[in-house]
Amino acid sequence: MRCTECGTEMPSRYRLPLCERCNGLLDIKMDLSGIGAGSEWRSSSKGVWKYAALLPIPTGTPPVTLGEGGTPLLRAPRLQGALGIEELYVKFEGANPTGSFKDRGMTVGVTHALELGEVTLACASTGNTSASLAAYAARAGLRSIIFIPSEHVALGKLSQAAAMGSEIVEVDGNFDEALRLLLGSAHGSGPYVLNSVNPFRIEGQKTVAFEIYDQLGRIPENVVLPVGNAGNISAAWKGFSELKEIGAIDRRPRMIGVQAIGASPLADAVSRGSMEIVPVVKPETIASAIRIGRPASWRKALLAIRESGGTAVAVGDQEIIRAQGMLAALEGIFVEPASAAPVAALSALMQRGVIARGESTVCIATGHGLKDTESPICQVRALKADELGSLGAGLGAVISRPSGR
């Protein structure tokens, strides 16, 4: 475990989420020298722990698990027809136990916390991380504290954390302010931080790359993800890079990050050709999971984009809601608004020549639609009987059938 900024190597039981010397992000480098391209890098287990050989948890350590991972990779034929793309897949991370991709990282992070003897876990969250932390802390019998911004947290996510007994601290401000307050409390005997700045979280999240390869049987040309705090795009890139290191694959996909126009520091940096972001002080978007103006992992994300030959783009809220509706109506895949951002960006990416019509593309849908039912497409209007017209007559005929038919 080393600092990505100053290169300082951390002791094995280091518990802070950032480098004590320079506050840089930490990265775990696995020794993969004894692992080859054969079957030894994956086991007969299912989900995240199928790839235990590539995770930094000692062999034989019982994982804190709820059966995360193993989420479906779904071909989207009707959606690809509507968008004019020939090979499109959706990796539906909403099928994880708490309804989002966060469970991949949390199973590894909480397992490591038990190794360290931690008793109190904490995170700052716009919603999904809080639900996941609460569930895995409960599973491990540990205390959990959630720092939430006072601005726009989806009730469907917060209710999960509340139901699982987490202590919830409301911070006057946005996510960036909540994370700053949390990190300031982590020193000494403070709580063990399990945001994506924790490198063990990234180790779990990288398994999405292993699954895409296993399920598709090859590497797609493009992987498109929503970007909030920017941990997931760098985690997926780490996973593909490790597969190449052990010789399982000979190339890696382009990594394409998608943000909302009101919260797009990475996309803005890419458009300027810069490797530095300008934080968005007051991020605004309907997609609460990516309403983050100062992503903690921005540098790792920009490196993943540059090394992969990818890009980052921003889409508007109306485009996000339209894509959310298309996923639901055309494919039966119900995702939260942030998860629809990759689909919202596809047309523009094709017009710009970033994605070619015949290339295989995987969009990672990071969270279930039930996580954020405040979305406009979730507003229900029930028809009155006299509005049914001819359908109403048919319905009446069905209802009036004799019970024996």
What would you say this structure looks like, in words?
With 405 residues, the chain is α/β, with parallel strands linked by helices. The chain has a domain at 73-99 and 201-376: Rossmann fold (3-Layer(aba) Sandwich), CATH 3.40.50. Helix content is 36%, strand content 14%. The chain is built from 13 helices and twelve strands. The strands form three sheets. The protein has a six-stranded mixed β-sheet with strand order 3-4-12-9-10-11, sandwiched between helices. Helix 4 (155-163) links the parallel strand 6 and strand 7 (167-171). Helix 3 packs parallel to helix 4 (155-163).
State the end-to-end distance: 70 Å
Q: Residue-averaged pLDDT, rounded?
A: 91
Shape: globular
- SS summary, helix count: 13
| Poorly predicted regions | 394-405
Tally the beta strands.
12
H/E series, N to C? EEEHEHEHEHEHEHHEHEHHEHHEH
Radius of gyration: 22 Å
Query: Which strands sit side by side, in order, in the main sheet?
Result: 3-4-12-9-10-11
Can you summarize the main beta sheet? 6 strands, mixed
Structural class: alpha/beta
Q: What is the CATH class designation of one domain?
A: Alpha Beta
The CATH topology label of one domain is Rossmann fold
Question: What is the level-2 CATH architecture name of one domain?
Answer: 3-Layer(aba) Sandwich
Give the proportion of residues in helices: 25-40%
